[in-house]
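User: Can you help me understand a structure? I only have the sequence.
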Amino acid sequence: MVSTPAYDPPAAPPTDVAPASTAGHTGTIIAGCLAVCLAQIGLVLPAAINGVMQRTLQASGGELTWISDAFLVPAAVLALTFGVLGDLYGRKKLLVGAALLSAVGYLVSATSHSAAQLITGQAISGIGAAALFPASLAMITAITTTPAARAKGLASWTTALSLGAFLAPLMSGGIVEHASFQWAFGVTGVLALIIAVGAWLLAAESSAPQGRSLDWPGQIAIAVAMLALLYGIIQGPSDGWSSAPVVASFVAFAVFIVAFVTVESRSAAPMLRLELFRNPAFAASAAMAVIGMFGFLGGAYDLSIRLGVIQHQSPFQAAVPFLVIQGVTPLIWPLLVRLLHRVGPGPMLVTGFVSLAGAQLWLRAVPIHESGLVPLLGPLVLNGVGFGLVVAALTAAAVNVVPPALTGMASATTSLVRDLGQTLGPAVVGAVALGMATRQLTGSLAGADLTPKEHGIASAVLHEGGPLALHSADLGPLSAKLAPLTEHALASGYNNGLILTAAACVTAAVIAAVFVGFRRSGTAPSEAEGSAA
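Assistant: Let's start by predicting it. Here is the structure, written out as tokens:
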């Protein structure tokens, strides 16, 4: 274990928090939990209905990835921006506005009849989520100033996040069993309106404006860098990795990430204090968030394709495994509180990441034709335990190693790197799996017992829509001939994606063991720090 040197940031006045009355304290925690629950619902919502959306909209593999990532991209790109806005103008105001914006996005999605409009609605809702994640966490950390209160607040936030991921497939799967997929987005929009009103009535305002300003050069540089990176990864399989737009996107990422570091190092009031990363514990937390959440959500996306697209399970059937995964965290909530307060994040992170890796490899070992719940139950429960441990400990590890006045910045940074990892998960897994499946199908079609006309039709569909489209297309008797080929190719591709996600989780576990370690110490702020806040 590497020891963590003391962090000595520039002096900053205490955080301006709302009065810590019992009612204000409880109402703020409730509002923050409802907000992160809403944000996580939007993130997970497509998982159980990917197959229905793909068949209804005749979406290609790339479009299906963008439907999920259109929500995640702004959540990753704008997290720091909204962290600054919340510190400057108030996290409660930001949270209420973000919930209302999310409702607008869900309305656009609820009226969509094309992949393009659905992607647009997802992007608008994702902008709302980009504010909901850091604002909700900063509100809770600002008002929980003792070790016990901080541990309970962070565990509550984590449980609410997991509850949102639990409710999302239940809502979308249950609704789409009886109505079109658009209704799932419409119901979520109504929920967003209710949460906006609840937050306005319940939450106390908090802010930390000292030393914070809208650093526009930094905002623009990080936004362009993240968008360019994600565009290149998502479009690479369909456009070609050597195509001009994809190469240009990776070049743009490199240029603008260097520009961001340069701007932030020279700014008098940076949106992100780069010296935060001189603290090994905080830097390790950021690395673990990117790598670990890539592993978790990449595996979850892989599972959703297995259930909804490859196996053609009904929306509710496809939702049940996700209910199992996300139902674990609420059950172990008391344990999370105890572990955060008494043990600390190190053992939780190592155990959680190892559990996630084991779950991915176990899932890979389950044959693709196994569509029942029982063969999947072991990896699903292990996945849920790992997720609960990791998210609770990761959040605590990040926000508790910085001074109270910088918890807003730390919360926003944690949201950015976590959401970046979650965005990269579907993008990279989809790119790897679809690329391998396409190559395998190209060879399989050449050797299959097909007439020249059938081969031409299959090749045309594969070229235009990719392997997912070929697997789901209604081509009459030809579909029956192609089904074994497409199923095998997709299963092979996505199983290799699970090797990648498991490797990511193992890497995150090693980082946790080395930089956070196994010290038996809680991670909540000290009483002195609480008083200073």
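Now, to help you interpret it: Residues 407-447 form the longest helix (41 residues). Confidence is low (pLDDT under 50) at residues 1-23, 521-533. Let me know which part you'd like to focus on.
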